[in-house]
Design the sequence.
């Protein structure tokens, strides 16, 4: 083993996706990825679109176009860790922190660990209560659809980032 093998191999990426529904009533999603050896630390938050130019602090994989003002920036709003399956042991996951009654990050981190089996997944969601409430006056009627669209776009973006990193 050489000293070069011990060098830290950490890269960060982030991007935003516009509101999945037209009309601007729903928030845009912000994705941040910290890629380490066999580990993905993923943060997902929301923001509102602005007419400003793209954020000058965009990472290696930032998107251009309209800027987004990020809402609350909580690292551990809803945080889970999932370990990929090994042999006949299925994907396992555990919640690290939950801020409410719902646990959206736990099953989502398990699905991401299945999709990216060579990586441990740390998933932190910082989403408004309108998307995470199970019931009540804060519940957005399209919340479950928005979360499905967000998860699909997150998986696609992660796949693109990881394939781009493997190609370079």
Sequence:
């Amino acid at each position: 083993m050489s000293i070069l093998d011990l060098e830290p191999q950490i890269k960060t990426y982030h991007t935003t996706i516009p509101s999945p529904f037209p009309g601007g009533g729903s928030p845009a999603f912000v994705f941040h990825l910290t890629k380490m050896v066999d580990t993905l630390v993923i943060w997902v938050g929301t923001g509102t679109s602005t007419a400003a130019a793209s954020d000058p602090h965009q990472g290696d994989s930032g998107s251009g176009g309209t800027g987004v003002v990020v809402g609350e920036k909580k690292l551990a709003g809803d945080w889970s860790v999932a370990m990929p399956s090994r042999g006949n042991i299925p994907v396992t996951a555990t919640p690290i922190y939950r801020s409410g009654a719902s646990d959206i990050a736990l099953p989502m981190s398990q699905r991401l660990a299945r999709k990216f089996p060579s990586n441990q997944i740390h998933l932190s969601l910082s989403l408004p209560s309108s998307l995470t409430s199970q019931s009540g006056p804060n519940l957005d009627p399209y919340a479950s659809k928005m979360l499905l669209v967000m998860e699909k776009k997150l998986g696609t973006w992660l796949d693109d980032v990881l394939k781009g990193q493997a190609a370079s």
